[in-house]
Amino acid sequence: MNQPDRTEAFSPDGTLVTADKRVVVSLRQMILDGSLEPDSKISEVLISKMFDVSRTPARLALRALEVEGLIRKRDGRGYTVLAFNSEDLAKAYEVRGVLEGLAAGTLARTGIDEESARTLNEGIAEIDAILQSARTAAEIIQRYQDINVVFHGRIMQGCGNDFVGLAVTRLEYLPLLRLGTVVFNEAKTFEELNRLRFGNMQHRLILDAIERQDPYRAETLMREHANQIPVYTSLFV
Q1: Rounded CA separation 94/86 (Å)
Q2: Which molecular function GO terms apply here (predicted)?
């Protein structure tokens, strides 16, 4: 399978930098809940009209969803919405949970560096703060996504086993398997914000186990954290 070019849509650490994240979140939800059916054709022009944005954020949003494995570029213009099911997602996330658990356990065993620990602790504290703020759900999910990418990416990079990261990268072209991807159902904002609080609490427990150099607990918590995603996304599929 040819891998899509990421340079336009993502910075080196995987953060979406210029696309309108509101468009990405909304389109992702529409694909998951079936509003955009499998084999539907979508394009920059259509997205621009749907969300009243220019062609540039529409293009970058589509590229982001292509990286997540939710759409595929057509031979001509535009993209096609791909079909997937919760069983496939569960199998893929089980594999990723094992890999991320291995990374967390290895990092706990070898020790996390001071700068990374500080960055991850600051990110967790920031999420706690914005979840208690008056920001809109869209603003919260955008920032949560950025910090989530950093959290999982730092643990993956810091474990010292490049083969773990390579294996995770090979999974990223399956739907929603990109490291740090967050799914958010805007129709259930209250429940979703509570889910983000729970996810951030899991981040805190995982980091605590890593800092205490408890590899078994760090690996177990990370695997449990990863395995929550297919349970949740099955509600959409």
Answers
A1: 12
A2: DNA binding; DNA-binding transcription factor activity
Q: What is the pLDDT of residues 206-225, one digit of tens each?
A: 999 999 999 999 999 999 98
- Which position has the token pair 């914005």? 130
Q: Please state the pTM of the whole predicted model.
A: 0.70
Q: How far is CA 228 from CA 45, 64, 75, 112, 222, in A?
A: 35, 23, 36, 25, 10
Q: What is the CATH number of the domain that holds 35?
A: 1.10.10.10
State the amino acid at position 147 in one-letter form.
I
Cβ pair 105, 111 in contact under 8 A: no
Q: Is residue 5 part of a domain?
A: no
Is residue 166 domain-shared with residue 206, that is, in the same domain? yes
Residue with tokens 């690996």: 219
